[in-house]
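Batch job 17 of 40 flagged for manual review because the log was empty.
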Amino acid sequence: MVAPISKEQTKLESCDVEPGVSNNQNDGQILGSAILKPILVYDGDCSFCKFWVSRWQKLTPHEVKFTPYQHLPEVYYGVKRQEFKKSVYLITHYRRLRGAAAVFEVLALGGNDFWNKLYYNIVLADVLFEAGYRFVASNRDFCFWVTKLFYKDARKFGKHSEGR
């Protein structure tokens, strides 16, 4: 059984680094002075992830930048690559969100705040949504197979490259 992630764990309110600067002492890379728009970091090798990101890109063509973690340094805005492998992250100028909270915020940026309202206003909704997110993240191959049953356009994304 997967332990639920609390709101405090999901919604990482303060960044460990100044916006735009990596805190990895070894890479010394300046990533920009500020985040101009939110950045959703996802697994670029995962067909399930690529399919859903392609749908969210259509909803938020100018509001969100989408970047596979494989294109980023080992530490990006205080998040290690190992963490990006487990969950999507939405990095904004003021905060970092991960998991279901990140997905729902992207949807809200696209004009659909229904899921955000549920997540933040219904008792235990955040716990249930994060448990659901963890299930999907841990069973991407199966969830992608189900997605292809309901969305014909998902078939062009191929098979998830590695089971997780």
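Reviewer: the log was empty due to a logging misconfiguration, but the result itself is present. The beta strands are 11-12, 39-42, 65-68, 75-76, 79-80, 89-91, 96-98. Unflagging and moving on to job 18.
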